[in-house]
Amino acid sequence: MIKFTTEDKFIVTGASSGLGQGVALLLNKLGATVIGIARNHERLAETKQKSEHPENFFTEELDVTADIDGLPGYVKSLREKYGKFRGMAICHGITDVTPTQMLTYDNIKHVFDCDYFAPIMLAKGFVDRRNNIGRGAALVAISSYGALSCNRGMSNYAGAKSALIASMRCIAKEVVPFGIRVNTVSPSDIKTPMVLSNEFSTVRGADHEKHYPLGYGEVEDVANMVVFLLSDDAKWITTQNYIIDCGVGL
Ligand SMILES: NC(=O)c1ccc[n+]([C@@H]2O[C@H](COP(=O)([O-])OP(=O)(O)OC[C@H]3O[C@@H](n4cnc5c(N)ncnc54)[C@H](OP(=O)(O)O)[C@@H]3O)[C@@H](O)[C@H]2O)c1
Fold first, then answer.
1. CA of 243 to the centre of ligand 1 (A)
2. Is the C-beta atom of 19 inside 6 A of ligand 1?
3. What is residue 250's predicted lDDT score, i.e. its pLDDT?
4. pLDDT at 214
């Protein structure tokens, strides 16, 4: 069974909701110290309230798109505040459904800022050897099965999420000599506020879940995989992208 100590410190973005919240709560339950990042004060506070060890759960409010160039410096400031990090889970993100004829550069940039540029600059901060513990450190970023499938209106989101997988694999190659592992996870539809939103069911259709032989996934289905990849149980696994879609291949 995976166990951490309070000396194992993890940054989790998107900790106020959905997959990020699930990852943050599981790491904390297993004994780790968690620094949960998101914009919404109330939802971050609710996550901390739900945590099994709130004394080891810290929250930081940040819009990761506000100063993307400054994100490596932001990670450094967290290291000065909390100490060196054992891991980072990049779980924040937004979705986008825009038909090609409606796309604008601003719209594309908005999605890429959040789902690609910010994750890359956060990764830059984390893999800086001054900010992590070295051998045994691990980074996991959540991409999406949408990066690998083709769906109408998804060119923007799919572009950002596939770019994320490609760049994380290259970063993984750069840092493996230092014992740092980097992987991505690509879920299909998981029951989070993002997927349960009216906007999503309008686009996909109310009965979309019937295509999944095991139904939509639960947050824990992704959180378990992310936490495994962050742990020493995955000490020989790096540069990979794991699809979690109950085999449906949509
Ligand atoms: N759910 C799925 O089925 C599914 C499938 C494939 C991939 N994914 C990916 O998984 C990730 C999480 O999705 P989810 O379903 O958990 O969504 P969610 O429930 O909507 O949560 C999104 C999280 O991202 C944070 N966030 C968004 N924009 C941010 C910003 N500019 N700065 C800081 N934090 C920001 C939100 O926090 P605040 O609003 O508090 O800032 C929230 O904590 C996303 O990257 C998504 O693309 C999800």
1. 17
2. yes
3. 65
4. 95
What residue segments make up the domains of the chain, in order of their start?
9-244
Burial class (CB in 10 A: 0-12, 13-18, 19+), 43: middle
- Which CATH number is 9-244 given? 3.40.50.720
The letter for the amino acid at 189 is: D
Which stretches in the chain have pLDDT values below 70? 250
Q: Which of 192, 204, 226, 245 for a ligand 1 pocket mutation test, highest count of atoms within 8 Å of Cβ?
A: 192
In angstroms, rounded to a whole number, what is the distance separating the alpha carbons of residues 153 and 182? 29
Q: With beta carbons less than 8 A apart as the criterion, state whether 156 and 111 touch.
A: yes
Q: Is the CB of 87 under 6 A from ligand 1?
A: no
- Note if the pTM is more than 0.90: yes
pLDDT tens digits for range 159-187 = 999 999 999 999 999 999 999 999 999 99
Q: Pocket of ligand 1, candidates 12, 63, 91, 164: which has the most ligand atoms within 8 Å of its Cβ, to mutate? A: 91
Q: Ligand 1 mean position to 93 CA, how many Å? A: 4
- Amino acid of residue 165: I
CB 10 within 8 A of CB 34: yes
What is the structure's pLDDT at 198? 74
Residue 193 Cα to ligand 1 midpoint, Å, equals: 9
